[in-house]
Structure formats: C-alpha cells, structure tokens
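Here is one chain, start to finish.
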Amino acid sequence: MKNTCLVATSLALLTWAATPIAAQPPALPTVFDGAPAAPWIAHPEAPNDEFGVFHFRRTFDLESVPESFTVHVSADNRYRLFVNGEPVSSGPQRSDLMHWRYETVDLARQLRVGRNVLAALVWNWGEERPVAQFSRRTAFLLQGDSPAEAVVSSGPEWTVLRNEGYAPIPVNGQAVGGYYASPPGESIDGRHYPWGWEQVGFEAGGGWLPVQAGQGFRARRTQPRGGNPFGEAGGWQLVPRSIPPMEESPTRFASVRRAEGIEAGSGFLRGEGDLVVPPRTKAVLLLDQSHLTNAFAVLETSGGAGSSVALVYAEALKDAQGNKGNRDEVEGKSIAGVRDEFRPDGGERRRYQTLWFRTYRYVQLEVETADEPLRLHDLHGIFVGYPFELVARFDSDLEWLEDMWKINWRGARLCAWETYFDTPYYEQLQYVGDTRIQALITLYMTGDDLLVRQAIEHFDLSRIPEGITASRYPSDLGQYIPTFSLIWTTMVHDFWMHRDDPEYVRGFLPGIRAVLGWFDRRVDDTGLMGGIPWWPYMDWAPGWRGGVPPGGREGHSTLISLLYAYALERAADLESALGLESNAAAYREDAQSVLEAVRRRTWDAERGLFKDTPDGDTYSQQANVMAILTGAVPEAEQSALMERLLSDTSLTQSTYYFSYYQLEALREAGLGERYVEQLDPWQGMLALGLTTVPETPEPTRSDSHAWSAHPNYGLLATVLGVRPAEPGFESVRIEPHLGPLKRAEGRVPHPLGEIEVRLTRTDAGGLRGEVTLPEGLEGVLEWGGKETALRGGRQEVSF
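Its structure:
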C-alpha cells in the first residue's frame, strides 16, 4: 500500500487534506505557506509519561479580526482547545505513533479585536491509559498555517500549569463485570482547579511556568524543511485528520429512580432548580437515563466546601446473585461500575466536566456534605459519538421490528467514535471481527464510508512481519486472533463490492497476500488447517473454551479450514479484478483443495452434517454454516443442511456474533423467507428492557456490542433484498424475502443517491410495489424465480 506519510516529521512538512492514510499524495509537499515549523511543548518539570493534566495558555493581541485564522493542532495523549473560553477542537484522532493525527481548525469566528487567548487542556493517563492509546510522552503542538498565523504557534511564548487537582481512579475489571481496557475514573479537587483559566481575563499566578520546547521532544532531530535525507523517523509522525469532528450534544436524565438521605425532585436534572443537600448529610440518588448512552458528565455546583460528590456509572443494575435481569427494574438491585469523584471548593457556579466520556444507563449520585450545604444546579451529559446521519429506514406490518431497529441503531452508534468500538463501556477497542459487521451496518444505514476506510487501513498497519494483522487496532498491547486476519480480507472485499474505488482497494493486496501466506504455511498433509498459535477465536459458543472451536489450537478445525477457504475465494475475486490473475487462480485452487479435504475428512453422511474435526464427535452450527457459505456442500443440498442446523438443538449453537454468518448462509441456502423468524432473540432483548444490543446471550458482560446489531443490515440486504450486483455497486440486485411480512418498505443509501423499495404481498400470493433508483443506476428485481429490469427513477413492479 502506498504510504508516503511515514516520512513526515512535523506539521510544517505536510499540507492539509482530510484524506485517509492510503490516499495520501505521492510526493511530500512544501511547508504551510512558508510558516516556520512549530516545536512540541510540555511542562518543564513534570515526568514525561506519568498521569497528568496540564493547562497551556498563549495570549496575543489583534488590531482586526481576520477572515480566516487556521491552525493545526495535536497532543499526546489527548487535548481540548479553547479560544477565548469557547471550545473549538478535540483530539487527536486516535491512531499510532507512525500515523499521529492532527486537526486543522479555523479560529476566526472566536477571535476578537484586542486581547485573545488560546488555551489547551492536555492530559496523559500514564499507566492507567486505555489499551487503545499509544503514547510517546506528554506534549502539545499548535502550528499556524501561514506566517501571519504562526505568531501563535507553540513555542516559548506559551505557559503551562500542571493541575494538581486531578488523579486517576483505577478500575477493577472483575468488580465492574469483566475485562476492562477503557480509561480510568477521575478524581477532581476543585480547591486546586484554576477556575477561569481558559478566559481572556484570567490572571496567571503561581505555578504557571514557561513551557519546555523543541529538541528534547524528538528522538532524532530532522531537518526542518524537506525531511531527513537518511529517512530516519522519530517521535510523532504526523498525518492529517481523516474523519469529521465528533458530535457533541446535551443529553439529560429521564428520572430519579431511588433516593436515600434526601427528598429529591427532578428539577436539577432538567437544569430548572437546585438540589440542596444540607450540611453533614449523606445522600444517594439513582438516576435513570432511560437508555444507554455515551456522554461526558457535567456537574454544576455552588457552595459545599469540604463536601464530596461521586458518580458511579453502569449499563445495568444487578441483583444479589449478580444477574442483570430486566434492565428497567431497579428494586432489589445495586450498582457497581466506573467511578468519578468531585470535591467542590465552595465557590459559586463551579462547572465540572469529565475529561473522558462514560457509557451508562444508570448513574448513582453520591453526596456527602461537611459544614455547609451543597447546591447542585445541574447534572447532565454531553453525548459524544461519530456524527453519523441515519439515511436508511425500514418499516413493515410487524411492529416490534421497529423497536429492534432502534436498539440496533443505538448500539451501532455507541460503538462508533474516532474508531469503531467492540464495547464503549469495557474496552473501546476496534476488533476486526466486530468491525466487519459494523462496517456493513454503516454503509447500509448511513452511506458514510470514512470510518470504514480508516478501519481497513488500521488493520493493514497492524500487520506483523509474519503477515497477520493484530486482532484489534489501535492497541498499545498487541493481541493476535489469526482468524480475524482472514475476516479482514473479507472486509476489504465487502468494501470493493460497495464502493467504486479500485485503486484504494488495490493498495491492500500486498497485505492480503501476506495474511493468506501465513495460513498457507499451516495447511498440513491432511489438507486441513493445522494448529493455530495465539488465539484462534471464532465465537463465544457454549462449551468452546475462550471461543476457540474444537481443533482450533491443535489443528484440523473444520470451521477454521473453511474460513480460510472463504477468505481465499474473496481474495481471488480481488486478484482477478485488481491484481494478478495467476494469484487468483492459485487462490481458487487452494480453496478447492481445502473444501475437498473438508468433505473427505469431516462429512458425516449418516447425520448429514460436517463434524467439527475429522476424529471428533462434536457438531456445530458454525462449521456447517461456513460449509454453506463456501460451497463445501453442493447447492442442491444446502437447503436440507440448513434445515438441520435450525432444528437440531444438540449442535453447538451460534451466538449473536456468528449469527450474522448464519443468517447469510440462510439466504445462500435459499431459505431467506425464514429470515424474520430467526430474529426471536432480538424480540427477547426488547422484553429484557435492553436499549442496545448485548455481547452474548444472558448472562452478558456488555449491554452494548454492535456485532449484535446486524439484523438492521439483514432487514435491508435480505428482507428488502438490496445488494450490489457487481463490484463498486455499479448495479443493484433486489431479491426480497418478506417471510411472514405482508408489507415492507425502506431506503438504502447508494453512492449515487438513495434506493427506495415499497413492497406488498397480494391476496393471490404475488407481489406489487414500487422501486426508485438514483439516476444512473440500473439493476434487476427478482421474485419467485422471475426478474424485471430496473432503471434510474421510480417504477412500479408486479409479480
């Protein structure tokens, strides 16, 4: 993959272009309109990599307000930038050190004649930083775009204060429900906070120091213009932001569900009245958002010197046995979770906002006052997430599908930020297996492909010399699930089918070849996949230790062998169209060889099923699903095999993640009419009061795991039947499978516009309706073995 960004060593060496890594220009451009390179700056005395929160300030005067005033800004770990007290940027977009992102912001709107102040809140989580956070050392960088704007570039004119009022609150994963890799909680002591520091009139007193700037922040000094002639790279290798700023919007709690130690109304939750906690009082309030969300907590108080306020966040409450049960019920249940603590200094209208967002439906507010009352004016959240706009829609005569659509969409939104997330509460990590499904949901529901592109690039960048990708990326702690590398190749194929950008896709062929070569070396003389090192995860299936199928570690897993064939087939498509036909032929030959070995060694004719391993006696839905998707079982026999999978409860059952593949196999086997009836588990989620989709069936760690949101894709791609008919979505094939529905209609975004489908069953068992395609798009609609041609514009259809 072309990637000329690796040689970038300072913002002054790059021009701004909001494009993905794989699409960077082939030649290194000149500096920003002649502006000198700005140095990274930091606190002169604070350790490089310990937990710390820092305030950076730079005042300057303007005789007039310019039409534009563009700066480029970044930090390690994170920053928030203010101009005259108004927040203007947050970042940097999450990536790794070799592709460290910076944001470009026009500050003109916030500037004024006379004195102005730029203020940056920068923090480093230190040892408690989330697993997804790469870091070199605490530092901040601001670069003016031209000489006129360079007067504010980071340098010796800036001052910095270390905020001694912050401390991390480490999170015990087992105490909150399982593996935890997200940021810590926060303790904020208002007595040490420099209130008003971001405003023009703030008087910087003791503790504010001139910044340390320049040489000490580079592992190797590079030439300020033109780059290092020896190709050396050190420090942060800067590339421009490739996605839009995150959405931030206020969100408020719905109700107070429980109160102890005080009578509490809900006025303060609406910002319409104070909650006054008397002196020497302990009060505990359970607040209900009514649905799961991601939000920064915002608390506004007056008075209450010596008091303490804590917020405890949870996706759900648990009973004495540790069960969540119905998420709407609070009686007899308690809360455990990530915790933030605030210590008001007694001042008026103190506004506390957490550095990082929390994921919660329930929040427990715990207040303990000292000798004076505490007035809580307001407590609310600021929702944060990738700024998706919902374009797709689906409607039918089965009412509960609308509620399922909503919780799936909310789950998809909460698991999309500057990267995709597996779970926003526990990990905030972008895993390949999750992301393939999330990418399809994104393309079908929003039409926005920027986050999809970034994810494909991230996984390519994560590959190790042996060839495979990391299981998750960005991640400062390496983890390898080799089977996810195969899924990454299918993710590239998905993108190729849905977007007409062959040169972009071509750039990933070397990585795909490396992945498939890694697996090729592990096919043994049985023709099946031998033992897989690291973590050969496939599904959180009951009885599979750590999600690893029989034969996964020791070798000869039917499922993993078939997944390899599945990836080979898709790689062959890509090589044939964009790479080398000889590679395509070799991949098809390898795939057929694997399929023949699977049929020869694992097919049980008596049961009409594939075994999990040649010498074993276990059977799973997962292995047989993959047999259908790869054609290991002849097309004429696929329907009967799928019927057995749906009826035989003795088989290892697919969980929510792998059910995406199972429902794809259902359609492949000619049983798409049964798609809707397979959605009973999602109706069960609604009955449990879930407002997003969980990681696994009960008991589940995470209540928000977007890999379980795939039925929204299925409603559009299988029930309405809208799919690309050829690469790049150059044409469309609409093959509806309404099942029990008498009516179904919806909208699917397409690069050329929107595809609208309205269908109704006739009393005679036929189908009528209308289809609207964007101008320039053609296709076919198939129903009952018959086809009708489609063209751009609106047309009626009847069968």
